[in-house]
Amino acid sequence: MIIGLVLGTGIVQAQAKWVPDLSRRLYVGDIFTAPSTVQLMRGGLKRGDWKMLENKIVLLEFFDTSCGSCIEAMPKLQQLREQYPDMFEVLLVGWQDRGTLEKLFSSNAYFRENKVNLPVIYADSYLKSLFPHRSVPHAVLLYRGKVQAITTSNFITEGNIQKLYKEGVIELPLKDDFGKRELSDSQKKIGVTIMGYQDGVPYQGWRFERDSLSGLIKSSLYNASIFAALKSLSAKARLQQSLYIPRMDRVVWKVKDSIRYYNFANAPYWDMANKICYERYDSIARSDSLQARTVLKDFETFFGVKVYEGLKLMQVLELKPIAIRAYIPPKGQKSMTYLGTTAFAGMTDYSEQFPPVLDRVKSEVKMEIYPYRSLEELNIQLAAYGIKAEYGMAEMEVVVVEELSERK
C-alpha cells in the first residue's frame, strides 16, 4: 500500500457502482419475506432455516471486510448470541464471495483472540435489495415475521434484546441512508434553521451549493456532532494551515462539558441527544472559505462556541536527521510505502501508537517501512533514510474548542 496523503473516514461506504431499486425496500413494521436459499458459512448453521428462527430475534448485520467498526462490533454480537441462544440469532451479511470472507476470518488475529464464530451469509444480493444502504455497519432486527428496527450496531444491546423479546416491538433510532436531506419548507427563504438529531436523516458533512428550486445559496450539514461541524468548518475557512488529523490529545477543551461536543464514552444514545442539523440560505454567493467563516459566526451566536488553532507544549515523537545506516529488509513480509516524511508522520499520528509526531526532516524520500513492534525496531528501518525518531517535548498545533463567556 502506498500512502501519499493522510485522510480519515468514520464509516465504510457500500459498493460505489451499486444502484438500489428503492421500490423493493422494506421499512420498520413491514412483513419480512425470507429468501428461498442463502449461501452460509461458519457459525454452525448448515442452511438458512427461517422457520426455525421465527421465535427468535434475528439480527441481519451487513458488513464489509474493510469496515473497522464492523469488525470491532463482532465480539459483542458473539457474546450476545451465546448469552441468549434461545431468543437471539446473528447473521452477518456480506456481498463479497466466500473466498474473500474466508480469508478475512481465518487471518484476523482479533477474531481468533475473541473467538468470533458467527454465521455468515456471503455473496448476498437479495437481503441488500430489501434493506439498501450506503454505509456499514447496517443492522436490521427481525422478530415475529416483521422488520422491528433498521439501525446501527450501537443499539444491539442486552437491554434492547430483552425488551424486544418481551414486548414484541421496540423503537430504535432509524438508519436510513436514502432518507430526505431537508429540514426547511419547499419554499426556501433567506435565514438559518438549526435543529437537533433528526431520525432517519442520513449523515451529511458540510455542503455549500446553489439550491435548484429557490436559486439561493444553501449551506447544510445533517446529523453531525458540534465538534465535527466546527472542525471541518475551520478547515474550510482556512483557519487551520496544517493537515494533521485531530487526535484527542491535540484538542484543547475550554468548555463546561466536552461530552456535549464529542461522544467520548461511545454511548449508544448520544447521537440523539447531541447531534445537530443545520441549514442556511443566502442570496449572495461567496467563496467556500468566506461562507465557512459566515457559518462559524452562526455557531458563535447560537451555541456560544468557537474553534481555532493554537499551540500546546506536549510530549512528541520527533523525526530528526542522522547519518544513513544500511538496513536489510526482512523476507516474506509486506511493507508500507510512504511518499515522504509528511505522509509517514501523518499516518503514524493516526495509529496513535506513539505521541504526536513532529517532523523536523521534511523529506520527500520514498520510504518502505515493514511491520515493527517498538520504537527501537522502527528506528532501525528509519536509519536507512537518514532519520531517527525519539521522544521529546515541543509545542504542537492543537484545535481549541472554546465556549464564549459572553455572547456578542
TrEMBL record:
It comes from the Bacteria. Coiled coil: none annotated. It is found in: Cell envelope. SUPFAM superfamilies: Thioredoxin-like. One of its GO terms (cellular component) is cell envelope. Residues 13-175 form the Thioredoxin domain. InterPro entries: Thioredoxin-like_sf, Thioredoxin_domain, Thioredoxin_ResA/DsbE_sf. Signal peptide: none annotated. Keywords: Cytochrome c-type biogenesis, Disulfide bond, Redox-active center. GO terms for biological process: cytochrome complex assembly. This is Thioredoxin domain-containing protein. It comes from Sphingobacterium paucimobilis HER1398.
